[in-house]
Amino acid sequence: MTCRVAILISGRGSNMASLIEATQAADFPAEIALVLSNRPDAEGLERAKAAGIATLAIDHKAFPDRESFDRALDAALNEHDIAFICLAGFMRVLSDWFVERWAGRMINIHPSLLPLYRGTQTHRRALADGVLVHGCTVHFVVPELDAGPIIAQAVVPVVPGDTGESLAARVIVQEHRLYPQALRMICDGTARLENGRVVFSRGWNASGALHSPG
Q1: Of 38, 84, 90, 110, whose CA is between 20 and 30 Å from 55?
Q2: Bridge partners, 137 (sequence order)
């Protein structure tokens, strides 16, 4: 059986598009059953509609506090029989109540090699520190921001003359590759959460490495 997945967005949904494209493969163990946004004008909603996917907007501004919005979000997800959530540019800090309710069933992609550079402005901070490699991480969501168990990471070189924009452009290419791979591993059982860590059911290729400069 395929896993019914909801993607939560706030904007244009570039990672959403990569997930939708990947799940259209016949052998992918998940289906995107819903795209939901806290912003009714989010560009990604129209992109999802064009792909034939159910969409829903729940405007967070219509609620008096964070938890009341999150409860409406939870009710909508249950109404659509959602089993798993992918956050893809969802610009809301979710309440502990919601995160704990969906513990082990919600993942996020973050534009850094966690645990480095939690939060925002990750590319600028990486450049300021003079690192030679940077990247992105898919992780389970926990109440502490960007601190959940890591599922997958991708690494890019930082090169002389990089700006935050040029580095971000290189990282997002890897985000679009990594997020579908991580979702596949979770849904087919290749990666699973055990005692607060991600464990894998297949071996690793330990021979590869990225050298920078190189």
Answers
A1: 110
A2: 110, 153
Q: Cα angle at 64 between 62 and 68, to 5 degrees?
A: 90
Q: How far apart are CA 123 and CA 164, in angstroms?
A: 5
Architecture of domain 1-102: 3-Layer(aba) Sandwich (3.40)
- Binding site membership: which residues? 13-15, 66, 108
Pinpoint the alpha helices (H) of the chain.
Answer: 14-23, 43-50, 66-79, 96-101, 122-129, 164-188
Catalytic residue status for 123: no
**Residues in binding site for (6R)-10-formyltetrahydrofolate:** 66, 108
- How deeply is 81 buried, as exposed, middle or buried, from its count of CB atoms within 10 A (0-12, 13-18, 19+)? exposed
pLDDT tens for residues 109-157? 999 999 999 999 999 999 999 999 999 999 999 999 999 999 999 999 9
The domain over range 109-204 is classified in CATH as 3.40.50.2300: no
Kindly list the distances between the CA atom of residue 106 and the CA atoms of 5, 82, 109, 125, 156, in Å, as whole numbers in the listed order.
10, 11, 11, 27, 25
| Given 60, 80, 110, 139, the catalytic residue | 110
Query: CATH 3.40.50.170: which residues of the chain?
Result: 1-102, 109-204
CA dist., res. 72 & res. 70, Å (int): 5
Start-to-end Cα distance in the chain: 44
List the one residue out of 95, 86, 92, 60 whose CA is nearest residue 138: 86
